[in-house]
From TrEMBL:
Family assignment from sequence similarity: Belongs to the TRAFAC class myosin-kinesin ATPase superfamily. Kinesin family. KIN-14 subfamily.
Leader sequence residues: none
Designated name of the protein: Kinesin motor domain-containing protein
Domain of life: Eukaryota
Full-protein residues shown: 418 to 770 of 1075
Kinesin motor domain location: 23-344
Species this protein is from: Amborella trichopoda
Residues the entry annotates as binding ATP: 106-113
């Protein structure tokens, strides 16, 4: 069939895809010091391809160092294009009918939005994973157009205090939107045909996300945002239909909130964030351990993504850290979270066997 022909032509890619099937990968990205911070000392002592060592500023000698292993570690000078090159095989597998989840995890200011979206002023070089993913999907579907006909549609939601909000619900969307979706039946699913259409929708989504935020309450760091891309491909020879789905999730900031200082709204937000991030960690850890029971129901996020976490689906967690000594405590807890998510598969599987 046409599908087999495409696979044959993309054999190397197909093999990569098979390797990734059902797997959980963790990439760690260290952001550079920001302009004006260059003279600060760094907690990052060593960066290798798959590991990094951090330095505790309060300890001396051997005790001061701690190493972590991940599938990849990107240092401060890694470009957006280099990060995307290691993400691309996963994204392309969506066109072959896989479900893929990509998460950005880390404390506020560690570079989550930079990885997924880009900096404030986005240039061609600084474009993040979201834009590159969509443009790649359109490009490949164009290349396959003699054998496959693809339909691409997107959803954008925000989860704040365990409440789901549709960021594309605005009347501004004149596209032929349809009222259906995977697990958020009420969220608008908008049919798109080009990257620029998606960028327009993302801008609408970002504007809608800002509603409800005040100067003192930058909601975007305390809510999860999810751009979901649904792909449906029809094999023009056999008529067979493939469905794949890509979730691009910018998670709420993982920083712990000082309980003695947080009250009211702030405390409630912090509790919801803690709960949902640890629920996500639990789900991923339990999938990696191949537990019979996976606790999807413990948070809105894991409930929504249930079909795309586990089974044949592929998960990539980008964990972000700041090199600043000031952030050492948060950096350590971020890396421990990531280690738990990553090493379970490598570590616990070894122990269990
Ligand atoms: P978060 O989404 O985790 O709160 P941001 O993505 O907003 O963090 O990053 C905080 C600041 O650091 C922003 O000004 C951003 O442009 C900058 N930044 C983050 N990562 C990088 C990077 N890899 N290269 C250059 N600047 C970065």
């Amino acid at each position: 069939s046409g599908y087999n022909k495409v696979l044959e032509e993309n054999r190397h890619l197909y093999n990569q895809v098979q390797d990734l099937k059902g797997s959980i990968r963790v990439y760690c990205r260290v952001r550079p010091f920001l302009p004006g911070q260059a003279s600060r000392s760094s907690t990052v002592d060593y960066i290798g391809d798959g590991n990094l060592t951090i330095l505790n500023p309060l300890k001396q000698g051997k005790d001061a160092r701690r190493s972590f292993n991940f599938n990849k570690v990107f240092g401060p000078s890694t470009t957006q294009a280099e990060v995307f090159a290691d993400t691309q095989p996963l994204i392309r597998s969506v066109l072959d009918g896989y479900n893929v989840c990509i998460f950005a995890y880390g404390q506020t200011g560690s570079g989550k939005t930079y990885t997924m979206n880009g900096p404030k002023e986005i240039t061609e070089q600084s474009r993040g994973v979201n834009y590159r993913a969509l443009s790649d999907l359109f490009c490949i579907s164009e290349q396959r157009r003699d054998t496959f006909s693809y339909e691409v549609s997107v959803q954008m939601i925000e989860i704040y205090n365990e409440q789901v909000r549709d960021l594309l619900a605005a009347d501004e969307i004149r596209n032929n939107s349809q009222q259906k979706g995977l697990n958020v039946p009420e969220a608008n699913l908008v049919l798109v045909t080009s990257t620029s259409e998606v960028v327009e929708l993302m801008n609408i989504g970002h504007r809608n996300r800002a509603v409800g935020a005040t100067a003192l309450n930058d909601r975007s760091s305390r809510s999860h945002s999810c751009l979901t891309v649904h792909v449906q491909g029809r094999d023009m020879t056999s008529g067979a239909v493939l469905r794949g789905c890509l979730h691009l999730v910018d998670l709420a900031g993982s920083e712990r909130v000082d309980k003695s200082e947080a009250t009211g709204e702030r405390l409630k937000e912090a509790q919801h964030i803690n709960k949902s991030l640890s629920a996500l960690g639990d789900v991923i850890a339990s999938l990696a351990q191949k537990n019979a029971h996976v606790p999807y129901r413990n948070s809105k996020l894991t409930q929504l993504l249930q079909d795309s976490l586990g089974g044949q689906a592929k998960t990539l967690m980008f964990v972000h850290i700041s090199p600043d000594v000031e952030a050492f405590g948060e950096t350590t807890s971020t890396l421990k979270f990531a280690e738990r998510v990553a090493s379970v598969e490598l570590g616990a599987a070894r122990v269990n066997k």
